[in-house]
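Sequence, please.
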């Protein structure tokens, strides 16, 4: 881990202006109770920080990856459609979707 102040020093006082939205998902409320969701979000925050991304939102869900009407997923789609973020950061692609991840991936931009 590199402190943000050191990143700024190494980058000549500049950090990336890449806006990232974090999406984290658990399958069950049992996992949520044991703190798994918080640890997942913290790992994603660390990842973003190390790359100089500015986290503009953290969206979470506790539901099956097969479920298409997840509240957090719908909110994530809204953020992306309104271009309020440059990138979506997930720990593993199955956290976003169990199947069909390639349909969501935009090869012309680093959204996912």
């Amino acid at each position: 881990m590199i402190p943000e102040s050191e990143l700024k020093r190494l980058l000549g006082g500049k950090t990336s202006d890449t806006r990232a939205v974090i999406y984290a998902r658990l399958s069950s409320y049992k996992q949520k109770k044991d703190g798994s969701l918080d640890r997942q979000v913290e790992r994603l925050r660390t990842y973003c920080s190390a790359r100089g991304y500015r986290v503009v939102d953290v969206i979470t869900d506790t539901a099956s990856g097969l479920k298409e009407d997840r509240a957090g997923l719908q909110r994530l789609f809204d953020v992306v459609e309104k271009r309020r973020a440059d990138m979506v950061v997930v720990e593993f692609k199955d956290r976003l979707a169990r199947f069909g991840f390639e349909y969501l991936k935009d090869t012309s931009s680093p959204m996912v």
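Residues 18-97 form a domain with the Rossmann fold fold (CATH 3.40.50.1390).
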